[in-house]
């Protein structure tokens, strides 16, 4: 199938218009005409090869929403015209113990990423900075028409990446929870932790975000540049979700955990982070990570958002302004997620 979008051809050049082929839809596939695609910081890491595993040409984008334009003969979940969403993965082996347990991101064979990956036939996958995508219905989500579609897009990555660990560690009423970094992931973590009934403390380097953090649901806001402000919370948190994209000191946050508390890091800075053994030994603390979420849990999150009227705070941008959007994400200058309006993609 003919597709077109924007691609990076190496780690330094700007993204440019790109024509490419997708597979012809099979019996289990849906074709989604993409209406909006969020800009995740992972797009920037991968376009710039900061994780050392980039494959070019790369069409980024894994926060995808749009309308179904065709369905294969065996598809039951969608019909033409339905809203649909696609996230960070488009396939997994389906038979390993993790896939069977609906933990597909941890597929033993390795899940297939929506872009910058090879599918099980060895074909390069291309993401959502494009006009359309072909995905097996099992890896495609239903979207409620109740919500603003553009603002739903970031739920497909930023939403599930924060929802999943907050659920896994039972964040809710009676728990003191921290969210580190008020960016695309962080602002969703804050909204969910607040919605689940926890006492939420937002940690931020940006004084300009204090009022926003409170509006988004923070009970307290701590400016992390001030060590005494952090020290006041020593040994008091049940759970901290670290959503920072760059180098920072994890030990500062480990020290804030109470007995058996957990720090879950979902951020993916390019360099390793160092741990002081004393910071985890004290209070029998745990340091963990978490990767997006399983298919069933992602649908559960989308349904939860429709029920509780939760979406991302977004700024719409056009596809010809990707370079500017990337620079602004790196400066923390977006409230709080850029979403590309795919109507701005020129006809090929
Ligand atoms: P983002 O929108 O750029 O937000 C990152 C936030 O981190 C910034 O807004 C800023 O918040 C804080 N920050 C940035 N530089 C910092 C520094 N040097 N020191 C301390 N804080 C800093 O990025 P995102 O899209 O939310 O993604 C965050 C990270 O998660 C990225 O590394 C991304 O690749 C990763 N990610 C992981 C998964 C997963 O499955 N685990 C999924 C998606 C993304 P303040 O201004 O509030 O300080
Ligand atoms: Zn992402
Ligand atoms: Zn598997």
From TrEMBL:
It comes from Edaphobacter paludis. Belongs to the zinc-containing alcohol dehydrogenase family. Coiled coil: none annotated. Its cofactor is Zn(2+). Its EC number is 1.1.-.-. This is NAD(P)-dependent alcohol dehydrogenase. PROSITE patterns: ADH_ZINC (PS00059), D_2_HYDROXYACID_DH_1 (PS00065). One of its GO terms (molecular function) is alcohol dehydrogenase (NADP+) activity. Residues 7-340 form the Enoyl reductase (ER) domain.
């Amino acid at each position: 199938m003919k597709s077109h979008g924007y691609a990076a051809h190496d780690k330094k050049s700007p993204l440019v218009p790109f024509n490419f082929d997708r597979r012809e839809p099979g019996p289990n596939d849906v074709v989604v005409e993409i209406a909006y695609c969020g800009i995740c910081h992972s797009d920037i890491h991968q376009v710039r090869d900061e994780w050392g595993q980039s494959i070019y040409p790369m069409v980024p984008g894994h926060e995808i929403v749009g309308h179904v334009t065709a369905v294969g003969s065996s598809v039951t979940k969608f019909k033409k015209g339905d809203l649909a969403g696609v996230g960070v993965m488009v396939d997994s082996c389906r038979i390993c113990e993790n896939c069977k347990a609906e933990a597909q991101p941890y597929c033993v064979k390795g899940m297939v990423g929506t872009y910058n990956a090879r599918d099980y036939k060895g074909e390069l996958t291309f993401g959502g900075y494009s006009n359309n995508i072909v995905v097996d219905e099992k890896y495609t989500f239903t979207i409620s028409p109740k919500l603003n579609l553009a603002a739903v897009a970031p739920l497909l990555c930023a939403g599930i990446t924060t929802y999943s660990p907050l659920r896994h560690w039972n964040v809710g009423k009676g728990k003191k929870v921290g969210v580190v970094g008020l960016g695309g992931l962080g602002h969703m973590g804050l909204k969910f932790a607040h919605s689940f009934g926890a006492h939420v403390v937002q940690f931020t380097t940006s004084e300009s975000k204090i009022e926003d953090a409170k509006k988004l649901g923070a009970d307290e806001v701590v400016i992390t540049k001030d060590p005494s402000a952090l020290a006041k919370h020593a040994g008091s948190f049940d759970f901290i979700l670290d959503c920072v994209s760059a180098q920072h000191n994890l030990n500062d946050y480990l020290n804030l955990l109470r007995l058996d508390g957990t720090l879950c890091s979902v951020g993916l800075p390019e360099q390793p982070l160092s741990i002081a053994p004393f910071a985890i030994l004290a209070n029998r603390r745990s340091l963990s990570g978490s990767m997006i979420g399983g298919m069933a849990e992602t649908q559960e999150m989308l349904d939860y958002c429709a029920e509780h009227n939760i979406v991302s705070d977004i700024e719409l941008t056009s596809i010809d302004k990707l370079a500017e959007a990337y620079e602004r994400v790196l400066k923390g200058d977006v409230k709080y997620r850029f979403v590309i309006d795919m109507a701005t993609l020129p006809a090929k």
